[in-house]
Structure formats: structure tokens, C-alpha cells
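TICKET: design request
STATUS: open
ATTACHED STRUCTURE:
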């Protein structure tokens, strides 16, 4: 269980470096459906982070990154 906490802390610190920058996300919507979204990483909260994509705010959990449901593109 301790391993997951360290990974979660690593994800949070990596996202802290991206705050305020433009990011491209690949979002897994299930059944081999992927959606590509581009926006600005706006806020980081204890359990979620938000991305402002074309005036629409989308929130994701840090666990979405660990489970690879959300992937960052370069």
C-alpha cells in the first residue's frame, strides 16, 4: 500500500510543474474509445485536478493517471 502513496505523490509533483501550461490529454472513454483534449491545467486539489478546455472545465482524479485512463501527450 505504501508503494501507491509514493506513486501518487510523484504524479502530484509532476502535475505541479505543469500548472498553468497547455497540455494535451488522451482520455479513455471505454470500449476502445479515446478522446483527445487540449487545454490549460488550471488547479490542483487534494483529490482531483482540473483542465480548462475551450472554456469548459474538466476534472480528473490522480488515480486516472495511475490507472492510465488519462495520458498526457507532448
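STATUS: resolved
RESOLUTION: sequence designed for all positions
ATTACHED SEQUENCE:
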Amino acid at each position: 500500500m505504501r508503494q501507491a502513496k509514493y506513486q501518487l505523490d510523484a504524479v502530484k509533483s509532476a502535475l505541479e510543474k505543469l500548472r498553468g501550461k497547455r497540455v494535451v490529454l488522451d482520455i479513455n472513454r471505454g470500449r476502445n474509445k479515446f478522446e483527445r483534449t487540449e487545454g490549460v491545467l488550471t488547479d490542483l486539489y487534494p483529490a482531483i485536478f482540473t483542465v480548462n478546455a475551450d472554456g469548459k472545465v474538466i476534472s480528473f482524479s490522480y488515480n486516472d493517471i495511475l490507472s492510465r485512463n488519462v495520458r498526457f501527450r507532448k
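CLOSING REMARK: The CA atoms of residues 41 and 51 lie 4 Å apart. The chain has one domain: 2-73.
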